[in-house]
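Bumping my old thread because nobody answered last time. Still need a sequence for this structure:
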């Protein structure tokens, strides 16, 4: 049985108090919200913080606000996100992404902020301590070699957040709060392409809010996984399009997840789609551009060459769905999911 290491637990009632604890404890403290990723990692000794600073008791982080767009507290659970009718209607990609994270039990605990800050994953890293010790550990934790790419000086563990690609496509931003004040950055700027140092969040900062502008986007999220529940994505495609009255694309944002150590905006395909209608030729060309940016490595489930090829298909599914095609049968057969 894998057991948690000993730790102290702090339960602040405000963001300022949480930031003060983080500043005082330094690197030995970590934030915890739902704990669905951190606690298993602690059992496997990936992280061994001496102090856990809980965000669950901070009421301000569990609220949503409406204005020119939508503001979401980072401690809202994924289940609360899926039950929000405004998100389901106006920010469909986020609803679909949150609904496909893990199982209902984990969505009841896991938070949207936690999913954004999800630790990167790898077949050689996501193992127990004894397994990792038997291969002399890896570059991400306790070792000196990346077993996926042995000549690499950088960890190539993959980003497995579902909500980040959806939020990137929706042009969302995040608010980071610390003892020196707040700063707001685009969601795509929160991530760095490094499996170890994968977040741009500074020491002592807390992700407090997610802001989504009201852009009148039609959006969708398609997730590739082996099983229809529980599994992390091995490919995520999020597309948000803004149409004119005659179905010409006025604005487009395409994002990929689980294809690198960070989720990212596919800028070339996004620019290509502007000013066009979604004909079969345009869908095919844009899908090829999107797939060209997917460069998976042999660090997660399924064959990496097949994952590269199927990126073209999933991009096409997303674009045809936004065109208005009935993709429900394909969602059930391929993505193993049908939106409620």
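Sorry it took so long. Here it is:
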């Amino acid at each position: 049985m894998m057991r948690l290491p000993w730790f102290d637990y702090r339960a602040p009632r405000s963001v300022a108090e949480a930031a003060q604890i983080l500043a005082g404890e330094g690197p030995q403290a970590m934030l915890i919200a739902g704990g669905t990723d951190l606690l298993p990692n602690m059992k496997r000794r990936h992280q061994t913080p001496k102090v856990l600073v809980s965000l669950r008791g901070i009421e301000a982080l569990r609220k949503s606000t409406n204005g020119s767009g939508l503001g979401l507290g980072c401690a809202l659970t994924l289940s609360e996100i899926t039950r929000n009718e405004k998100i389901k209607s106006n920010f469909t990609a986020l609803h679909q992404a949150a609904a496909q994270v893990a199982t209902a039990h984990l969505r009841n605990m896991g938070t949207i902020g936690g999913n954004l800050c999800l630790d990167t994953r790898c077949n050689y890293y996501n193992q127990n301590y004894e397994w990792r010790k038997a291969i002399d550990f890896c570059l991400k934790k306790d070792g000196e070699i990346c077993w996926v790419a042995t000549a690499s000086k950088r960890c190539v563990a993959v980003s497995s957040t579902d909500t980040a690609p959806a939020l990137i496509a929706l042009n969302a931003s995040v608010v980071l709060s610390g003892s020196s004040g707040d700063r707001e950055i685009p969601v795509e700027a929160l991530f760095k392409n490094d499996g170890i140092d994968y977040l741009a969040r500074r020491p002592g900062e807390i992700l407090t809010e997610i802001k989504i502008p009201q852009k009148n986007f039609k959006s969708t999220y398609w997730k590739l996984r082996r099983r229809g529940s529980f599994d992390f994505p091995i490919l995520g495609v999020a597309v948000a399009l803004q149409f004119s009255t005659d179905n010409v694309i006025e604005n487009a944002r395409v994002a990929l997840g689980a294809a690198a150590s960070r989720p990212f905006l596919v800028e070339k395909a996004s620019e290509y789609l502007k000013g066009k209608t979604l004909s079969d030729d345009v869908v095919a060309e844009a899908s090829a551009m999107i797939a060209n940016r997917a460069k998976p490595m042999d660090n997660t489930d399924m064959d990496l060459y097949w994952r590269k090829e199927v990126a073209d298909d999933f991009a096409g599914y997303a674009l045809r769905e936004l065109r208005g095609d009935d993709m429900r049968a394909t969602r059930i057969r391929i993505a193993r999911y049908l939106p409620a």
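The radius of gyration is 20 Å. Let me know if any region looks off to you.
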